[in-house]
Amino acid sequence: MTGSIGSTVLGYPRIGPGRELPRALERYWTHRADESELRAVARELRARAWRELSAAGLDSVPGGTFSYYDHVLDTAVMAGAVPERFRALGLDPLETYFAMARGTDSVPPLATAPWFGTPYHHVVPEIGPDTPLTLADRTPVRDHLEALRLGINTRPVLLGPVTFLLLCAPEPGSPPGFQPLDRLGELLGVYAWVLAELQAAGADWVQLDEPAFAADRTDVEREALRDAYSVLGARTQRPALLTAVPYGDPGPALGALAATPVEGVAVDLVSETSTVNTVVATPGLSDKTLVAGLVDGRNVWRTDLDAALVTAATLLGSAREVAVSTSCSLLHVPYDVDRETALDPEITPWLAFASQKVREVVTLATALRGGPDTVAGELTYAREILGGRRASPPADRRVRARLATLRPAHLRRSAYADRRAAQERTRRSADDPTEPTDPIDPLVAAVDRRVRTGPGSDECYGERMRAGLHDVVRLQEVLGPQAADLAAPSADQRRHDDLVRFVAERLCGIAVPEHGWVQHSGAYCVRPPIVAGDVSRPAPMTVDWVAAAQRLTTAVVKGVLPGPATVLAGAFVRDDVPVPDTAAQLALVLRDEVHDLEAAGIREIQVDEPALWRRPPLRERARRDRWTWATEAFRLATSGAAASTRIRTQLGDAGIDETLETTAALDADVTTTAPATASVRAHADALAMVRNAAAGPEAAGRSLP
Questions:
Q1: Rounded distance, CA 568 to CA 577, Å?
Q2: What is the CATH code of the structural domain delimited by 397-506+541-700?
Q3: Is 59 in contact with 6 (CB distance < 8 Å)?
Q4: Which of 111, 282, 334, 696 has a CA positioned 20 to 30 A from the CA of residue 149?
């Protein structure tokens, strides 16, 4: 019989509490530090994480969760899946790794994609029918031995073979119909070797993550999952296998795993309430360890420990052992809320970052094992905090009253033909061409970030902001018509993270942590704001700066705002209020900002919604629901604009052909996507047909309150 897991987490942040890893990477990439210095920082971060998790009382400490850049890329390197164009560069292993992630002067990097509905972005490996697959890198084994030298027997964590192949793209030039999943049999040989070596190195358990099966999957893909773990489970030279399906309900995939010889299965019991029913209804778990993901790994609110214990109790008869864990890796939350001394002291006790979530896991496991009395103090404190939050809801009566007055008419602008005529008259009266080049974007948020990170005191903020805007405007004037080429970078995620934070800092009901860094991709980290109450706008946010930029030039300046869905995608949202309600509150904030921009003479306003397509929910039903409320919120934010104001939107890398109906439902005057940055005029025949069909009160989806 395998050893007990008891309490664990599925992963841990890896950037360092003070962003030590990104800082070391930037020094290395700019040749201010050599490889030995970078590796020394990495060793210290790994050791620190293992010691902290062990000292916190976890029964099973995850290992192998560190990465210099991305764990999907790590898996590709482990399996030798390095495209020939990178091999041909003749670089050493670490430089080849970074070339795949970041590109070189002569070779572009591999693509990236959102990681299962989270803000994190992973590298997309390429595999073709002839890509060599072999155990080319033994980092998981080396990391395990490194932890053993510190006296900690970790549980190595690997990306599962099926999910890895489902995340890969076919190598350019692959024959039609080829899919990376076709190479599963050969890849399993690589995994069998690394499992045998991990067993020889002393690993008792190995965790294999299969998050792809929290999404809609075909019968063929689920059959591949069952076949993969039947093969790996049948091996005699291996540790015990824990297969994890984080980020949602595994559905039928849980039954497929239960039919294999794996010793444990980890499930996310937070993302979807249906998962408990899935577990109870799945036969074949009685001889396995069930790792119950009772603590939310993707949000920052404290866990209702009493409710979590009730959930755990309902599962006690379903498996040989019920262990306690987070719902997913803690990669997606900051390190420690105790560092946030500047947050509202009323809000801070409600929050749990990675360090606090580890303690919650230990508390739940102790209560489950020895009874609630063994942690009576911790449970009582948690009840008091939760009770205080419920007794003091951060509600704004004015916001609630305003929401209650909304009707479907608030979601509609005048007919597009009338708007287009009004916009053409306005531009002619201003002696502007009918179709001007893309307006100048003053990049208010980017300038704000540069000002805040530069030297000097807060007293010179306004002066430096004005100087920064002057520089941006002059640069774009020099570029002239070529400035249109800057439309694609404006869809970049970094740009929108800056803009979301710029707006969030100026709103009531949103807390902005000072040290709450999380990894977005590679060395790039973000500090997501926290929606802690009803959202309102005490004063205009961008008007002064956009108007100031307009006074500097005769060219058209556009105001740029993040759309409601994009703000929420870049923030930690409330867990006690439906997301569509918060989206409607943000829409009212943006509606007021649009009105004030118009009053300041701005007639080009862009409300960007790249998150409308990025990081979609994993299940089709949830995606439809999200697009409904996101579309409604966008229309609420923009429908108050005058007919003569041109409303633009940037949808990032959405494909217009695939999303025509929803794109038309936004009812923007100009829609732009990237990387093609093809402007889609609303008078195009196909788009107009859909727009006309969506013109009724029902166009925005659900009924407003």
A1: 13
A2: 3.20.20.210
A3: yes
A4: 334
DSSP 3-state assignment of 237?
Answer: coil
Q: Can you tell me the distance from the alpha carbon of 156 to that of 64, in angstroms, rounded to the nearest whole number? A: 5
Distance of alpha carbon 464 from alpha carbon 451, whole angstroms: 6
What phi, psi does 672 have (nearest 5°)?
-125, 140
Instruction: Please check whether the two domains, 20-391 and 397-506+541-700, share a CATH topology.
Output: yes
- 3-state SS of 376-408? HHHHHHHHHHHHHHHHCCCCCHHHHHHHHCCCH
In sequence order, the 6+-apart residues with CB closer than 8 A to the CB of 667 are: 412, 413, 416, 635, 638, 639, 682, 691, 694, 699
d(CA 391, CA 109): 51
Note whether 331 and 116 are within 8 A (CB). no
Average pLDDT of adjacent 10-residue blocks, the chain of 705 residues: 86 97 97 97 98 98 97 98 97 98 96 93 97 97 98 98 98 96 98 98 98 96 98 96 97 97 98 94 94 98 97 93 97 97 94 98 97 96 94 85 92 92 77 40 52 55 69 68 39 60 93 95 95 95 87 84 94 94 97 96 91 77 87 96 93 60 84 53 41 42 39
CA distance 270 to 640: 38
| Amino acid code (one letter) for 508 | C
At which residue do the structure tokens 């991990």 appear?
198
Q: What is the rounded radius of gyration, in angstroms, for the C-alpha atoms of the chain? A: 26
Nearest-10 crossing angle of helices 305-314, 274-281: 20
Whole-angstrom distance, CA of residue 391 vs CA of residue 384 = 10
Domain 20-391 matching CATH 3.20.20.210: the answer reads yes
Q: Is 210 helix (H, G, I), strand (E, B) or coil?
A: coil
Domain map of the chain by residue range? Answer: 20-391, 397-506+541-700
C-alpha triplet 669, 673, 678: angle, nearest 5°: 80
Helix (H) or strand (E) holding 141: helix 139-149
CA angle 70, 73, 76 (to 5 degrees): 155
The DSSP H or E segment spanning 354 is helix 354-370
Half-sphere exposure of 36 (CA within 13 A, CB side): 0
Helix axes 444-453, 493-504, angle to 10 degrees: 80
Residue 510's φ and ψ, nearest 5 degrees, are -125, 125
Q: What is the DSSP letter of 33?
A: S
What six digits make up the tokens of 685? Answer: 């025949």
**Tokens, residue 271:** 């993302």
